[in-house]
Amino acid sequence: MEKRKVGEIDHYYSQLGVAVVMLTAPLNVGDRILIETHSGKLVLEQAVDSIQIGHDKIQGARAGDAIGLKVLEKVHQGNVVYKI
Known about the structure:
Layout: E1 4-13, E2 18-23, E3 27-28, E4 32-36, E5 42-47, E6 51-53, E7 56-58, E8 60-61, E9 66-70, E10 80-83
Antiparallel strand pairs: 1-2, 1-10, 2-9, 3-8, 4-5, 4-10, 6-7, 6-9
């Protein structure tokens, strides 16, 4: 399985189950992602079901965007996001 880094977790809102991701590469709804710690420990794998900027749902985002991403598990600031 090939993986490519697309960003890092900047913040996690536990009450919403939403992570703020600072993107370093494009990400689209429907992509599959892995989120890992810096040491490479897998936190979760899931499909991207929803991306938001502000409160607007979008289908895709570019490098440099800060996005809201619904996640299935708790994540932490600094976790690395990969597209697979």
